[in-house]
Amino acid sequence: MIHSAADKRFHQLMLHFSQEQDLVRRAELEQSIWHAYGSECAVCVIDMSGFTRITERFGIVHYLSMITRMQLTAAPLIKEHGGTLVKFEADNCYATFSDTLEAIRGCIALQIALDTGNRLTDENHEIRIACGIDYGKILMPHAADFFGDCVNHASKLGEDLAEAGDILVGATAMQRVPPESGIVTAATTFHLSGVQIEACAVSYS
Hints:
Elements: H1 5-19, H2 23-37, E1 38-48, H3 51-58, H4 60-80, E2 84-89, E3 92-97, H5 100-118, E4 129-142, E5 145-147, H6 149-161, E6 167-170, H7 171-174, E7 184-192, E8 195-203
Parallel strand pairs: 4-6
Antiparallel strand pairs: 1-3, 1-4, 2-3, 4-5, 6-8, 7-8
Helix pairs in contact: 1-2, 3-4, 4-5
């Protein structure tokens, strides 16, 4: 779906790149694409937990109402902590932050806010999330989507590896967090699809 003139230009460049046979010209096109649409930042992927269990028990309307509450809570907290909301997709939230520390603090604030709200409702309406964070280069053809290794890594951490209440940060991304920040983590290793993933689990209260 073409969102804007910039998005159309991105698709044209990608098509041109895919059809270009000259290796030097391909390299030049790739550099142009990164120059126009690339940036470096922390990526955060947030996933709501319990979709299958809750939907099977209470129905999709019930779960969609919970997604709405999650979105209304997440959007202002992401902005408050210096982040940029990229998109909500199903029960996931995708955002960028200038660096890893800001992303961690935003996720901690969201976990605490949702936990506080859960104390005021019954367990059937409790919203629990898992968060994955990584840092690296991304391509952003328009304001509502992005691509990159760090997006993939953050998705794996938040959607596949983290459990409800977890905040998992890629080990390399965690190295960007100053020791004086006060962030407490525990190193952990995961194996997913034959790949070893080093991460840090953030402790918070």
